[in-house]
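I am still getting used to backbone structure tokens and would like to learn alongside you. Label the sequence line and the structure token line clearly, so we can match residues to local backbone shapes. Would you write everything just below, so we can both look at the same thing?
***
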Amino acid sequence: MTETGRPRAAESSIGTGNAEVRERYPFDDTRDAEDARRGFVGTADETAVRGAGGTVWELDAYGFLDEECPDTANPSLWRQSRLVARHGLFEVVEGVYQVRGFDLSNMTVVEGERGVLVIDPLISAETAAAALALYRRHRGDRPVTGVLYTHSHVDHFGGVRGVLGEADVAAGVPVIAPQGFLEHAVSENVYAGTAMNRRAAYMYGAALPKGARGQIGAGLGQTTSTGTVGLIPPTLDVTRTGQSETVDGIRMVFQLTPGTEAPAELNIHFPDHAALCMAENATHNLHNLLTLRGAQVRNPHVWARYLTEAVQLFGDRTDVAFASHHWPTWGRERVVAFLSEQRDLYAYLHDQTLRMLNQGLTPLEIAEAIEMPPALERAWHTHGYYGSVSHDAKAVYQHYLGWFDGNPAHLWAHPPVEAAARYVDFMGGADAVVRRARDSYAAGDFRWVVQVVDHVLFADPGHTGARALQADALEQLGYGSENGTWRNFYLMGALELREGPVGTPTSTLAPDLLAALTLDQLFDSLAIRVDGPRSFDTDLAIRFRVRDGDVHDLRLRNGVLVHTTGTAPGGREPDAEIALADTDLRALLLGAADLPDLAGQGRAEVSGDPGGLADLFGHLSSPDPDFAIVTP
């Protein structure tokens, strides 16, 4: 084992396990490789996509994947990453193109009568602009005549300002999205955005060195770009399945699929192309039912039903199915088989988890016991490169029964630091635990090593031997993982134990997202920042009177900030009343404006205590974007 910060080689047990993967699965099946190459038109000459802060995406960062898979990577994940890393412009069918490998997701371009409809413009404006430039280089300088967001995750809308401007929207270019898109896109990235972004740094491994002992991909895509995130609100909502729209001569029929891969999502059939866009509902991997970065639990029962409905609605009219990740599937029979197997995958996980939980098994026991049908396991597109059978089964349990497994011994457990101190004391002290854990490491029981040494680190985070051993064991687990996000989590943990916190490379708390918040959401965003214990004895009332608008009352009492529109019954007179325009109120709440400045400019009128608002803001805490994960 190393005491340095450098990654080490794979231990023999990991190498043996990875070799066994080669024997277990049909690596001689080349259909995915052929499909991933099909329709290739060309790629960019410039391999670096740059923004104001430097390089935000590197097209050739994964060239090492063309080499043979080493012992430090699971061959199945290596194969998937090699396919996903292919970059360039690809023709799906005449008039429909995809730019792949320019971000975590794909950008689809559908040609219309005058211009193009852009579907899912990636994460960053810089990568989206580069993708559109590549399309135009080969297909002509066609204007963007429509944008469509398939769902409410940032890798499907964040780059929109790289392909569309406010002037285009003002001129009538439609921005289409499923019903509920804006609410979910904004709330997910703002309410819990800081924690999600920090965990996403582990999930996608953007800070890891790319290479055979580092980041090789995330299964769904390679990693996240680090450019400028934006949002242009939709101008046209899709509100029902069967709704049809025509944009620039492009006919579309929609299927709404809320509560599947995202709270607001849709599939699109293009009847003139016999093409079906499955958004992120059917991709070439098992997806997450609960993403490791954190999100609301997704319902696989609903997901499976919508896949059945997609086959029923469009199966006999579709010759190619494509998604906003990975590569298309061509041929009517193959499309139906692909969608049906994806359906069976989610339905099986749902039904078998419920069967076992009703037999009394706990989440951990179900995750260990569940067996996948051989026919599904043989299909490459059902493999857990992004989601996993293990954490998806636990998500199903959580969806139905929550966090508690029913054992009263787990009802009031000590928190990690307090429990760790007791465990380590019972086991004879930190040095004794590390000595025995080294024996487990030598025996190849890395899973146990990380579980037991975690207690040492939470009892004594500065223990150098424990840090080194834990980093080595996490690294070995990463080397053996078929799941890209598991590998990244393990290797990020090892990296931060060796080198210290590396921060959060990507933030989705962008100005456009903040600007899209409703006033209710803005007040909510203040409420979740209230330092409750420091506010126990505070009783503070503020009234905002929006010119040509509503009255909003805020009251901080019992450590809770409550807001109402209009004066609430039983309320009291405000400590301060502030009259101002809606735009100035938003700027004030976002910290982009100062009340004394607004008052001095005549843009705000303050009656009562002029320091009341500052007093309220003084009870707010700031989130920590770099909080510790593998140490206390």
